[in-house]
Amino acid sequence: MRAFARVGLVLLGAGIATAIIFFCLGNKQLVTVDLLKWETEPIPLWVVVVTTFAVGFCLPAFVLIAFAIKTSVKSMKQRRHIRALKAEVNALRNLPLADPERPDVGDELAEAVLREVEDRKNATTEALRTPRSDGDEKGREDKGAGAVTDAGAGADPATRKIAG
Known about the structure:
α1 (2-26) runs antiparallel to α2 (45-93) and α2 (45-93) packs antiparallel against α3 (103-129). The protein starts with a helix and ends with a strand. The strands form 3 sheets. It has a two-stranded antiparallel ribbon. Strands 2-3 form a two-stranded antiparallel ribbon. A two-stranded antiparallel ribbon has the order 5-6. By secondary structure, the protein is mostly helical. The protein folds into 2 domains: 2-67, no CATH class; 79-162, no CATH class. The model is unreliable at 138-145 (pLDDT under 50). β2 and β3 (38-39) form a beta hairpin. It has helices at 2-26, 45-93, 103-129, 134-142; strands at residues 30-31, 34-35, 38-39, 43-44, 148-149, 161-162.
């Protein structure tokens, strides 16, 4: 099937080249192009038409390439943001909800979680503004960002803190 496609493309290219050659042979009359205050010497009509066709073909291609680059950069930023949000969700899943023996501990943890969420939100916003190298992101992932750690062995739940 690919062979037919290649043959078709070759025949299409040959047909276009033949049409351009016949067009050039049939339009040898000299014309002067007057564009604003710029004026050319007399040149063959086929040069003007082929040049116009080439510019008209290349200009949208450049616009398309610029759009593709812009879309790619935006996609990379969104993937980075999603990765940070997933890390935040995983960190929040590991937090204890409350200690039944100390009801006030739940309030302290809730405040700590809210502070951590706000800090991560600010860090994520800052990360989106400044691109990071791959080494920085790997280093951040290896540190276990957002994990809950005890202050020591047998530590009171109120002294737990969020590593970041």
